[in-house]
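It is worth pausing here to work through a concrete case rather than discussing structure prediction in the abstract. The textbook approach is simple: state the sequence, then state the predicted structure, then interpret. We follow exactly that order.
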Amino acid sequence: MGVVAVRDIGSQVVHVGRSDWSGEYECVAHPLGVVAVPQFDAAPSAGPDARQLSDVLHACGFATLVVDLQSIDCEGDMGRLSQRLVDVLGWLRDKHAGMEVGVYGTQFLASAALQAVAQRPGIAAAVVTRSASPELVGAHLAQVQAATLLIVGDDDADLLQSNRAALRLLSCSKRLEVVPGAGRWFDELGARETVAHLAGAWFMRHLAAGRLQ
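Step two, the predicted structure:
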């Protein structure tokens, strides 16, 4: 993988919607777009995963908002999580008027991200998921308009099958990337770095293209 370039990053803790909903907002100079990275602090390796992804996205020219959804007591509640993500994405659109917004999610949060962009078309221009369970979104997948990249490891047959089925249901710009040797958690050496660069390339294509012309 390529070397991540160093950029000047401005970082601040922001409150998104309510005083007890906070996230780490990091902005580069003259951003090409902005990406929401929801996570649960309780998830294995969530912190390092988000940090690696953010570094790659910053090198690509994107601002990021890493927001912790653990504190809102809705882990496992798809409806509440997806609505919370709609709130986060709406906040980013308001903060970055005229700039495209993207969202990246893993596992259950990946499924919630798909539902969020399905229930609110136009709230985001692109979504990247890792190890999503699209069957949790069901028929709503057909309503997704955001350009969607599904990333799955080839060592998880069930997820691979469900993501292939989801790809057929999606009517938006879409792609399935299968990472060799990776399982559900992507703990294998180099697997998460691969995901970060795949995400960066997808967001460059679907968030930044207009600003690079």
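Step three, interpretation. Helices lie at 46-60, 78-95, 107-119, 157-169, 191-206, 209-212. The mean pLDDT is 88.
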